Amino acid sequence: MFERENKIYKKRKVLQNEYQPEEFLGRKNEIQKYKSHLKPVINGWQPNNIFIYGKTGVGKTAVTRYMLKHLEKDAQKYDDLNLNTIFLNCEGLNSSYQVTGSLVNKYRKPENKINLKGYDSRKLYEMLFQEIEKTGGTQIIVLDEIDHIQKDDSIFYQLTRARENNEITESHIGIIGISNDFSFRDTLSPKVKSSLCEKELQFPAYDAYELKKILVQRSEKAFYNTEKTSENKINSEIISGAVLDLCAAYGAKDSGDARQALDLLMESADIAVDKKSDAVKEEHVEKGKIELKRGRIEEGIAGLTMHGHIVLYTLLTLERDNETPVRTRDIRPRYTAISKKVGEEPISPRRMRDRLGELAMVGVADVTEKNLGSRGGSFREYSLNMSDELVLEALKKTELSDFLKGRKEI
DNA sequence: GATCCACAGGAAATAGTGGCTT
DNA sequence: AAGCCACTATTTCCTGTGGATC
Q: Distance from first CA to last CA of chain A, Å, rounded?
């Protein structure tokens, strides 16, 4: 029943997000600056706090991991240097409280982990400082996706001022904050901003040429019968330069995102394998783009709340009735009706607006702002952004599936 | 340029969940 | 068990917005 038929991949892993290349192309300047910012650490001095920003897929996290790996390795050469690095992704953590608790858990063994509820904030900080002091030496704390921390910035104050507030005496801490939202910096209170953003490092987007170089570098390792002939050219029986150009253009299109380009390359190659093709062709890339989009949307839809799903379904039925684009207040009655059919109490209009906004955010709906002045004021109009079949498929994988099965046709 | 429209979206209040401390 | 704590999801209330119209 199962059989290996892959003629494409030598090593698929090379295209995955976790893969760490030994050389980062197009990031020479950034690595150079990063290195100088981290220099004090190796001297055993108080580390700099570093704020790193740049769009998604420009290597912020990967380069950081790479730098820290080297830093740790080189630190071992010096007996008087005790270096410990902590890496925390703040996705899903929206308060200082949760970050503090998560940091405590990073230090602790699985059996001693704490809950992220119930403690007094002060107590939580004490626990963190205790852990830090127990470890001692120099500690680099990396907070990735730091902009998810929205509610308050006390964690930064506590960490950057821990020493002068005598919370810690045995250890030195340096914070590396990573954000893809530069404006986050300006939401910080002034005293936190100046200390947290002591050193700043901006990662620019990759252009198509740089992305091509990256794709060439990875392709050589990932595919059979492929070799690099110059920095941006390959000779390959599996994959053509034109295919790589397509992937590079896709990544460069909106944000210079290497991850997007690599994802597309992998998706295309997966499709080629699936089709038992001998090579990755341009048509596979086109299919790949559609697949990636579908995946993103499905993921987005899966992440919505139940009422988000109901609102989406409402929009879907309006779309099928050719009533889109439709303004918020015209969505309302049908939403209320459908909600009741599903057996749920409808949420308030205010809340429904939030849900609609999320649909637009996820990319499944389009919004247009309208303003008819004194003849009708301003409002937003929504319509589905993609085929209704696709949306319906995604909705069937949610808690609405039973409800949807019960209806023969929309 | 003042007025008006109708909603967007911020802010505060409330309800309910679940964990910690004593 | 009572009194904390923070969380999420929500409702209620209300101010702000920007173009059309006068």
A: 38
